[in-house]
Structure formats: C-alpha cells, structure tokens
Design goal:
about 350 residues; alpha/beta; 434 Repressor (Amino-terminal Domain); Rossmann fold; 3 domains; 6-stranded parallel sheet; 6-stranded mixed sheet; 13 helices; Lambda_DNA-bd_dom_sf; Peripla_BP_I; LacI family transcriptional regulator; transcription regulation; transcription
C-alpha cells in the first residue's frame, strides 16, 4: 500500500541528495551517477513510495513555458536582454521562467536543474561561462532532446544554437580607438573570472591584439568582475600603481560608471586626465557626467532573436539554418568621456 505521507523531500533527505536529483531518478533522467541512482531507488523502495503517475507524465507534455537563465538581473544589459526575450515569448504565447545565477557556476547549474525539474519546453541561457561541468550538463540535456539555445557561451555541440556578440572585435576596436586618439598608456579593467567568462576573455584578447599591433608592450589589466563597486576599487588601485595611465577600457558600462566615480574622487578629470570607454551601450552610461563612450551591444535584439530561435526549434520549424550561430557586431558610440591625448 502506498505511503501517502512520503514525498520527494523526505526521500531526498533520507538519501542525502537534492530534491532535483530525486526528481531526475523518478523520471529516469540522465545526469545522475549509478551509485546515487541506486541509493535513491533503495530509499524509494524502503519507504514504499509510489510517484503520482499524472505528475510523472508531465515530463512528456508541452507546458508552453521556457526557462531563461541570466547572470545578473541588476545589470541593465541583462534587463534589456530579458525584455527582448519576454517580448518574443509573449508574441508566441509562451510563458517564461526566469532564474539569476549571480555569475556563479554552481548557481547556473542549479538554475538549469530547476528548469529541468519544472519541465520547461526549452531553455534560453545567456552566460559568458565555459565551465566544463555546466557544458557537459547542457550537452547531456541536448542529447535527450531538450531544446537549448545559448547566448555569449562557447559550447561545442551542433544541437545547441549559439548567439553571441563579437567580443574579440569589440575589445580590439575599443583599444584601437584609444590608440588612434594618441594614447599609449592604456589599461583594461576586465570582467568576471569566477564564471570563466568567455565575453571577458575575448575582450581581453582584443585589447591585447590592438596594443600588440601598435607596438605597445605593456598590458595593464585589473579585474573588475563586471561589478560597478569592484571596478571602482580596481580603478583606484590601478591609478595608484600606474599613474602614467591616460586611458582605461572597461569590459562593461557598469564598470566604467564605477571607474568614473573613482577617477573623480581622486581629483582627476575625464577626459582631460583620463579617457574611459565601456561596453554594452546601456542608457545609464549616456546619463553620466560626462557621458561615457561605449561599444554598444544590441541587447534587446539578442534576447528577442535568442527566444525566436528557440521557439522555432520547439515548434518543429527547425531546419539547418536555425542551428546556425548568429554573431552580433557592436557599434562604437563616441561621447565626451574620451578625447585626443594633448
């Protein structure tokens, strides 16, 4: 006789695993070690637990819900990306489940597992990370026919379409722009290291390429972790240790805003003493004093097209063209935070 008082929370506690792991075992999903699976099955048997057949059957039914995983909802770039994705989802009569990973790989994994447990029809994920564990998990899900589209993420799987901004080109053009203004002491405040950000790494590569082409040997790079506060601290440390620097390339506009504050607090003027340029093209950067020069990404369009590509795959419209990658070029927007070196 079924024990009506037993649920998957108690099974998870008894087996010493997460609720999502129990759910994957019950629904015969991949991604669980044999030893763990056997332990969970033994607990299920010992407790005489019988999963509800109607609930279990949801795994094979269409829910018209898409999971969207982002790195930082407080960043205006991601907020506009979400708006684009949501707009397309609403047009196509899909619901959207949003999860925020805070640039932490373990949290990204939890987001994806939550979506899997919630039985979404597909997953749209924007993340710069290329961490092996998460890539392996995504590859495994794709092999079991869960439709996935990733943005700003490098993953070697033809079943997973990718959309990305050309971050190497953006880093190169941002640094070259400063070089063309006459600067040769150019620093870079880079993005996130914890999540192994591909976007950050490519922007660093672009910065280095531009300096190398110009014969500038010294590359001055400090971490800003895609955080306004961390970038403010990094800028202060950078200018204390390298007072010769006349220009700074920030890997995001939010970091450039933090840098602007640090520069002003140190009694320096922008752009008379220091020229600064960011990346993203967020509205807030245009409202600063002075307005910040930026490499603008089409964030709304990236969200919209990412969702559109995923929905086409879900609705069996997918042909080879829908699996092709989409690359977005960034646009240089010149503002008053940069000037020629006098």
């Amino acid at each position: 006789m079924k024990n009506k008082n037993i649920d998957i929370y108690q099974i998870a506690e008894e087996a010493g695993v997460s609720k999502s792991t129990v759910s994957r075992v019950i629904n015969n999903k991949a991604g669980v070690k044999d030893s763990t699976r056997n332990k969970v099955l033994k607990v299920i048997k010992d407790l005489n637990y019988k999963p509800n057949s109607s609930a279990k059957g949801l795994a094979s039914k269409k829910t018209n819900t898409i999971g969207l995983a982002i790195s930082d909802i407080t960043d205006p770039f991601f907020a506009l990306f979400v708006k684009g994705a949501e707009t397309k989802a609403m047009e196509a009569n899909y619901n959207m489940m949003l999860a925020n990973s805070h640039w932490v790989v373990e949290e990204e994994l939890k987001c994806i597992q939550m979506f899997e447990e919630g039985r979404v029809d597909g997953i749209l994920m924007i993340s710069g990370g290329s961490e092996k564990r998460l890539n392996n998990y995504l590859n495994n899900l794709a092999s079991h026919n869960l439709q996935i589209v990733v943005v700003d993420r490098k993953i070697d799987n033809d079943k997973i379409p990718k959309l990305k901004a050309d971050n190497l080109d953006a880093g190169y053009r941002a640094a070259k722009y400063l070089i063309d203004l006459g600067h040769n002491k150019i620093a870079h405040i880079k993005g996130e290291d914890v999540a192994s950000s591909d976007a950050s790494r490519d922007r660093v590569r672009g910065y280095k390429k531009a300096l190398a082409e110009a014969g500038i040997k010294e590359k001055i790079i400090y971490p800003g972790y895609f955080s306004r506060i961390e970038a403010e601290r990094a800028t202060k440390k950078l200018l204390q240790e390298h007072p010769e620097v006349t220009a700074i390339f920030y890997s995001s506009d939010m970091m450039a805003i933090g840098g602007l504050k640090a520069i002003k607090n140190m009694g320096l003027k922008i752009p008379e003493d220091i020229s600064i340029i960011g990346v993203d093209g967020i509205e807030m950067a245009a409202l600063m004093d002075p307005p910040i020069t930026t490499m603008a990404q089409p964030s709304f369009e990236m969200g919209y097209q990412g969702m559109e590509k995923l929905i086409k795959k879900l609705e069996a419209e997918a042909v080879n063209s829908h699996n092709q990658d989409i690359i977005f070029k960034m646009k240089l927007i010149e503002r008053a935070s940069t000037s020629s070196l006098s």
